[in-house]
Amino acid sequence: MTDAQTLPGQRLKEERIRQNLTEQEAAAKLHLSTTYLKALEADDYRRLPEATFVKGYVRNYARLLGLPAEELAAQYHALVKDERESTLRTPIHVIPHQRRNLWLWPVLILVLAVVSALAWWATRPSPPDNLEPDLPAATVTVPDNAAPDSAPETPAEIELPPLDAGPEAVDSALSEPPTPPATPDPVIPEIDRMTMSFADACWVDVLDADGKRLFQGEQTAGSQIEVTGEAPFRVTLGNAAAVSAIELNGDPQTLPRSVRGRVIRINVP
């Protein structure tokens, strides 16, 4: 069997055995659990996380053993794509069109619409005949020189001086322009800031409250990321034990508890 016919996991397993590496030694170097390593070598991808994580596992495992990492990752991607397409592929049944009596459908729809309208008109509540207004009608006096289509303007508020002030103060108050109303300040949306520090290698995916992806990639030991958006943040960690610190707007957050190599999803806060 050639390399092109061998599955990615089988190639990795054969090379590991050739280099006299045990499953425990390989899993420790990759920061994976032994269960994940066995499923990866057996090409049993249903026992592994999402395809994005598994592709990274295949690439890292190939680099550890000195195999062509991108070739094996591409082979895994093509394998998963073929399996997904074969699962979704269903037989197509062709049903011949029946052209007879097609004109009946528009007529039937029109009849149903007319019947529904008549039923609504017959059952609608009618207003009482002796309905009278609770409040008396207001009388509006229009000057003789006013235009027929003009609407009365709302008078502006004018602050008058005290009653004991002289006529000069009254004339001054009437001549001053009215104070315009205060304009409310615009509402500025709040932006949250989250920082994460890592003590070991870890694959990270961060989404904000609206589902917008803010970050996706692999972090190394001693690295740190900072994202801004609307909380809560939805974070997926490929190695949750590698996270050493999480802060939201400067406040420390509780670290996730997980064994090394376990993939988990958390919300911050």
From TrEMBL:
Pfam families: HTH_25 (PF13413), RodZ_C (PF13464). Keywords: Membrane, Transmembrane, Transmembrane helix. The chain crosses the membrane at residues 102-122. Residues 11-72 form the HTH cro/C1-type domain. CDD domains: HTH_XRE (cd00093). Coiled coil: none annotated. Residues 129-185 are annotated as: Disordered. This is RodZ domain-containing protein.
